[in-house]
Amino acid sequence: MLTLNCTVSESGPIGPVTWVKGWGSGSQAIYEPKGSSPRVMRAVNESNRDFTIHITDVRLEDTGTYYCVKFSKGTFGAEVFKRGGGTEVLVHARPSKLAVSGPSRRAVPGQSVSFTCSARGFFPRDIQVQWLKNSVPVPAELTRITSELSNSSYNVSSTVQVTLHKNDVRSALTCQVQHNTLSAPLTRTYTLGQALRVPPSVSVVAAPPGAVEGNKTVNFTCRVQGFYPGAVNIAWLENGTEMNAGSTTQPTETSQGLFEQNSTVTVQAGEEKNGSSFTCRVVHEDQEPISRTGILRVAVPASEKIDNSFIGDSSA
């Protein structure tokens, strides 16, 4: 509750006493004998000298300068007889909850990405914003403080640039705000993994390696490693034609927060498949496919050679 004190002399002229907020064309009546704001009441209702008022449920819009004004009854109505020197009221307000936003699309390692932290509705104007990445300070690129239309509160927006790295999947970017209305700083944390896309490395290996005998089986395994987020689509093609899906494991998470996944197809090594290509095609986060190929080598046995010099007529 806000209390505004005003006393008048008994020797003054006959006329009402009012309270106004502001002076001049933009003034606003706060208390009048015929009625006042619902949140305003007199401290002593029946007094002819004490015109102290209470304002309840104090709000940001109550910021301003208040005047106690004594009027006299003149020929042409009430005229200002005297007004007080004015009481300036400043309503302190806490910043709103912080909002931290990142890029609209994921970025790959090596890209510089912009992040913004904002808070609204605080007073007074002085405020401090600090950024930290994994508890290490990061300098802000731009911090702007703007006033509301009523000039009774302020908003802040701070921007920082961060270059992402492959090991930032679990890194934390924190915005920290200090203001004299706060007993402890406000904080909001953004996990950099939300803004990061790490493309996979893809390789195809054959087991057993090298050329194999006909009718043996060969396993081609596609190793998809070090990607984030942890969802990929894996397809196999034989000589450019999509084949039945292989046996694919579930993604597993590494200690760095990246993912790995394997897919295997089994091929019967017939002579007709010698030189065939088996391609693993991987699509991650709707990006262009990554393809790697293994070649099937089948060992063709040497044809039997018939030495005709040992074939003759044995008749006498």
TrEMBL record:
Keywords carried by this UniProt record: Disulfide bond, Glycoprotein, Immunoglobulin domain, Signal
Classification via Pfam families: C1-set (PF07654), V-set (PF07686)
Residues spanning the membrane: none
Tagged with keyword Signal: yes
SUPFAM superfamilies: Immunoglobulin (SSF48726)
Matches recorded under InterPro entries: Ig-like_CS_Receptor, Ig-like_dom, Ig-like_dom_sf, Ig-like_fold, Ig/MHC_CS, Ig_C1-set, Ig_sub, Ig_V-set
Domain of life: Eukaryota
Annotated ranges, domain Ig-like: 1-68, 95-191, 200-291
Protein name: Ig-like domain-containing protein
Organism: Chrysolophus pictus (Golden pheasant)
Organism ancestry: Eukaryota, Metazoa, Chordata, Craniata, Vertebrata
